[in-house]
Amino acid sequence: MGPLLCLLSAAGFGAMSIFGKFAYDAGVSPSALLLARFTMAALLLAGLLAIRPAARPTGRTVITALALGALGFATQATLYFEALRVMDASLLSLILYTYPLMVTAAAVLLGRERMTRNRACALVIASAGTLLVLLGAGAGTLGPVGAALGFGSALTYTVYILVSDRVLHSVSPVLLATLVMTGAALSLAGKSLVTGGVDLGFSAAGWFWTACIAVVSTVLASLTFFAGLRRTGPSTAAILSTVEPVVTTTLATVLLGELLTPAQLGGGILVLASVAVVQLRPRRHPAVPAERPAVPVRLAVPTERPAVAVGPAVPVGGPAVLVDDPAVAVDGPAVLVGGPAVAVCPAVRVDGPAVLVDRPAVPVCPLGSTVDSR
Predict the structure, then answer these.
(1) Per-residue pLDDT averaged across 161-182, rounded?
(2) CB burial readout 354-370, b (16+ within 10 A) else e
(3) How far does CA 18 lie from the centroid of its chain?
């Protein structure tokens, strides 16, 4: 279920460029599209929070999340959709998808992660792929303005991810997304007031494609990604997310008639391969348990105890009589051969010394003595 959720998320994000092209054809401007998109997304996510409330965040977390939306996500989206006006959707998706490598390089420079062999190889492959995308552009398909806007969008998204990674540890993903969308909507609303407002009187088709971006490519794409991330882990989720530009390129070819040159296609494959390489984990060898010094074991050795004869009382020179009654006179010698069956004379006067045998002091009839009960 986890991989399927990640693939659905990548498909949702990948379709955003196609929805944006259709919205432009319906008369929607980039500023109006962004304002409507983030406002719809914020309202939908707020409705989800009303149904399933999250833990109350701190004031600092709220301010940081709102700033992420107002300064980070709003800026990134503005650069992205402005670039979409002047370049093909498939090419823009390949340029945008250099951000995972930017995140890796920035994390290493900031000391959050260390540079491994996989990361170094991925950076080299991504650089070569990006160079192919730029050099393989046909006439009129990629201009300097579009390239600057595309890479600016990827760079801004890199900063947004690095900052939000810190905030995500103290707040739930749904609440963070709600605050980010709200901050972006407020920022774009303020911008529209300063610049004279936006035209929201576009056709129903324009509202439809804008709603598709808000619902499919913003809310559902974000929620399915977080759900898949919980089930698969970050590495698998990131590898599966490389499907996003593939979805965009396929949809742009089928629905918009866009085509990539062979060099651009090769560069895009290298970019995708670099993202997969950087997510590979080093092979771990099973740990070999270290030898432990032998611990001497002491065997229990029975200590010598006084010999206790085991067995019934055996008469010698006369019947063996066990005396336990002081009123009984014994006219024959009682011989004790030992053992638990001991001739005990608790109240009998013995004319010989009492013998103690491996027990509390118990008077017994000594061997060969005569019992005299008076």
Answers:
(1) 84
(2) ebeeeeeeebbbbeebe
(3) 33
Q: Is 323 exposed, middle or buried (0-12, 13-18, 19+ CB in 10 A)?
A: buried
| CA neighbor of 36 nearest in space, from 252, 220, 202 | 202
Q: Of 135-144, 170-179, 211-220, 306-315, which has the strongest mean pLDDT?
A: 211-220
- Alpha helices (runs of H) in 110-202, residue ranges in sequence order: 117-135, 144-167, 173-194
Q: What is the mean pLDDT of residues 116-124?
A: 77
The position carrying tokens 């792929």 is: 129
Distance CA 356, CA 351 (A): 16
Neighbours of 221 (CB within 10 A): 22
Measured CA to CA, the distance from residue 87 to residue 99 in angstroms comes to 18
Cα first-last separation, the chain? 98
DSSP 142: S
Q: How far apart are CA 146 and CA 129, in angstroms?
A: 18
C-alpha to C-alpha distance for 121 and 134, rounded to whole angstroms: 20
Q: Give the confidence band of 28 by pLDDT, cuts at 50, 70, 90.
A: very high
Residues 6+ apart with CB under 8 A from 255: 18
Go through the chain and tell me how many residues it has.
374
Token pair for residue 215? 């619902």
Q: Considering Cα of 78, then 138, then 247, then 18, what sign does the dihedral take?
A: positive
Q: Which range among 61-75, 164-178, 323-337, 356-370 has the greatest average pLDDT?
A: 61-75
Q: How far apart are CA 325 and CA 327, in angstroms?
A: 5
Residue 76 identity? Q
The whole-number average pLDDT for the span 247-271 is: 83
CA 230 to chain centre: 6
Measured distance CA(143)–CA(149) in Å, rounded: 10
Query: Helix, strand or coil for residue 77?
Result: helix
User: In percent, how much of the chain has pLDDT > 70?
Assistant: 68
CA–CA distance from 105 to each of 10, 197, 279, 297 (Å)? 23, 39, 13, 56
